[in-house]
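Tokenised fold entry reproduced for absentees:

. . .
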Amino acid sequence: MTSRRASVPLAGLAGIASVAAGAGLGELLGALIAPESRPFAVVGGALIDAAPSWAKDTAIALFGTADKIALLVGIGIVAIGLAFFAGWLQARRPPWGVVLVAAIGIAGAVVATTRADAGQLAWVPAAIAGGVAAVTLWGLIRMLQPREPVVAEGAAPSRRAFFAVTGVAVGVGVLATIAASARRAGGAAVEAVRSALRLPAPAVAASPVPSGAELDIPGLARVVTPNDQFYRIDTALLVPEIDPGDWSLRIHGLVEREIVLTWDELVALPLEESWATLACVSNEVGGTLIGNAKWLGYPIRSLLERVSPQADADMVLSRSIDGFTASTPLEVLTDDGRAAILAIGMNDEPLPLEHGFPVRMVVPGLYGYVSATKWVTELEVTRFDRARAYWTDRGWSERGPIKLQSRIDVPRKAQGLKAGDTVIAGVAWQQHVGVSGVEVQIDEGEWMPARLAAAISDDTWVQWSMPWTATAGDHLLRCRAISTDGEVQTEDRANPVPDGATGWHERFITVFE
């Protein structure tokens, strides 16, 4: 008779089951008492904050607006790997597997308390997750390594008990995770409040979309982007849920007087509608991280007039409830000719939760990373030489004016285009400057003018098109825009870092007989 050592697969299974149980219960507890501190949200948020710019750009390039889903999947894969290792370690070098799991839980609890939106109980979900995982792992490995000698007759019942307990642990973890998700989705009190909201009538209505602004070409981006198709790029792994009744905005810093604005006070102000195209600085040449909408809100310049910024101030640092910050030039926010607003409405609806409900910033002419703060709760009037924002701390430019760009939407590379009459079409933009023309080049030939659709305003993108008699074979299509001040879109290629991509968009198209 000899003592039995747990096999590597079974020890690893014990680790995975233990972490599944702990993580699931931590997620459920977080959903109940501290939604912003659910273990996966804490780990994911910490990774997002710690990620260098190149990692962010790579994630967006690979996964686009699904980058957060990809991050969660990646966290899950790493967690499984660590859990397997912890099980093996506990079986071979006890108690270090238990110590590892508990230490990860403690680390998660510490990180949770450092988050910008951390509450008093922020540490609890991760701590409980680590404790449950550690105790479960200790028990499962003990089942695989009994102290007394094992005879052949007694091995099977012990193994069956191990698998039974392992199954229960995994089941508890899965059910707890499902319950946590259901709690978050079903506890959609904020979504219910949003759905019941009726936006006040604007004191200043937006101009209607002009006739001829929409070319109605299949495959061409619509001139007004539906809310459910509007791109989403932000640092919030879990969408903040803020009841308007609990929302307030503090404006302070280098000002003569501070003010705090509540939701009721905001909606009672004379609100204004305006059109604005928003774009992410991470948008590659020809990318889709851009959208156009009608916004309802109150001019930020009017609020800044009330606080009277000091003469040496030159920047407003906006803060989101989740800790994100953006640096916006004060002169832009006080520009009488620019519709920089605290927005509460998007395309005649209250802001969707993922787009900043209840209040966000919209500033035409600047990339979102320096202007479009969602879930905004604070405006600090300061200086660029005294404060730095989230992305400027990560190597991006401080000011971020949008660059002149154009894009080919049709024909698409894989649409199976046949020879004959067709159309080349796309969109062009330089918000707060405007586009006066677009030119198209086919197979390195002469640049030819495209037809420009009617623009809603200089703060929005504009559609364009050009007829083309396509011949069989391979073709190279390029486009470039011309701004209203005469600038021609540069050919020089530049990556998004540090202040936006440049270059001509081009497509290689195969035309069939």
Q: What stands out?
A: The first helix runs from residue 8 to 33.
